[in-house]
From TrEMBL:
It comes from Spinacia oleracea. One of its GO terms (molecular function) is protein serine/threonine phosphatase activity. SMART domains: PP2Cc (SM00332). GO terms for biological process: regulation of intracellular signal transduction. This is Probable protein phosphatase 2C 12. The lineage of its organism: Eukaryota, Viridiplantae, Streptophyta, Embryophyta, Tracheophyta. Residues 35-328 form the PPM-type phosphatase domain.
Length: 332
């Protein structure tokens, strides 16, 4: 797929231990550790607009980065593809830059700054997220010969460093945690679906002269629209791309959350809305718990979602379905 860009579009360097899964079903360096899986399947459209990435040894020897990206609009498949290849590298660059600034400030002010402490590391990664996402958006905007005015992509990215999970969310893809309880494995939703109908999101869009309302045939799904015309009607309030709507309240600022991993935490699942539209958090967790082989967990989730679309939707509307599953505890 030819893309002309003034910014480099790169894959993760060899040795980082990565899997990039794009719309063509292509995997890059697919030798990943046990307990990790990634799978994507095209829906009813001509092109799969989802992408996903899973990187081992990210930021530290035991660090892991997972991400799913759901494109929308005419060229949404290009947006998600660019992000899957560029954002992991950009995030690393921003983290190194933040660390260098903090270290230089400490040395010039005779301060004692320990950049390796877990607390400072988390703060630096959070700042890196906040710097990388808007710059990623700018790089997409610089791509030549492709119109991204009404095309974009969501993103949910989870970073593990030691026993800490740092999650950045942009749009309506979702991350959940499966954790042990007295009732078995229960779920904790790690992200909030950022949609135009969410009160704070709707206020921002309307405050920027955008409109938020649902179509008659979708009464429970408010969308974001331009002030005077019925375009584009996007279903998320934050995303990469969609540059016309960036003037009317759609933003590329992620919501960042933190989770401290405990011995009861079993797995995380990141998935696009093609999964969550037909499967509940609990259903996904049950599917993951039921697999015999951890490496088949993501495929089992996607397969169940595809069946769900066929049984729950009365017309041919199956969405692209993509999932990443990462088991948090090493086997004895």
């Amino acid at each position: 797929m030819g893309i002309s860009s003034s910014a480099p579009i790169a894959v993760i360097p060899e040795g980082l231990g990565s899997v990039i899964y794009d719309q063509d079903g292509m995997k890059i360096n697919h030798q990943i550790n046990s307990g990790m899986s990634i799978h994507s399947q095209r829906g009813c459209k001509a092109v799969n607009q989802d992408c996903a990435v899973l990187c081992q040894g990210y930021g530290s020897e035991d660090g892991v980065l997972c991400g799913v990206f759901d494109g929308h609009g005419k060229n949404g498949h290009l947006v998600s593809k660019i992000i899957s290849r560029r954002l992991p590298l950009l995030l690393l660059d921003k983290k190194n830059a933040v660390s260098e600034v903090n270290q230089n400030f400490s040395e010039s002010h005779s301060a004692n700054y320990d950049g390796s402490s877990p607390e400072n590391e988390l703060l630096e990664w959070e700042e890196a997220y906040m710097n990388a996402f808007p710059e990623m958006d700018e790089e997409i905007k610089m791509v030549k010969k492709v119109d991204f005015s009404f095309s974009g992509s969501t993103a949910v990215v989870t970073l593990r460093q030691g026993d800490d999970l740092l999650i950045a969310n942009l749009g309506d893809s979702r991350a959940i945690l499966g954790t042990k309880s007295e009732k078995g494995v229960t779920t904790i939703q790690l992200t909030i679906d950022l949609k135009p109908g969410t009160p704070d999101e709707a206020d921002r869009i309307r405050g920027s002269n955008g409109r938020v309302f649902a179509l008659k045939d979708e009464p429970g799904a408010p969308r974001a629209w331009l002030p005077r015309i019925y375009t584009p009607g996007i279903a998320m309030s934050r995303c990469f791309g969609d540059f016309v709507m960036k003037n009317y309240g759609i933003i590329s600022t992620p919501v960042i959350t933190h989770h401290r991993i405990t011995s009861d935490d079993v797995f995380i699942v990141l998935a696009t809305d093609g999964i969550w539209d037909v499967l509940s958090n609990e259903e996904v967790a049950s599917i993951v718990c039921g697999v015999e082989n951890e490496e088949m967990a993501a495929k089992a989730v996607v397969d169940a979602a595809v069946k769900g679309w066929k049984s729950k939707v009365s017309f041919n509307k199956c969405d692209d379905c993509t999932a990443v599953c990462y088991f948090l505890q090493n086997k004895d």
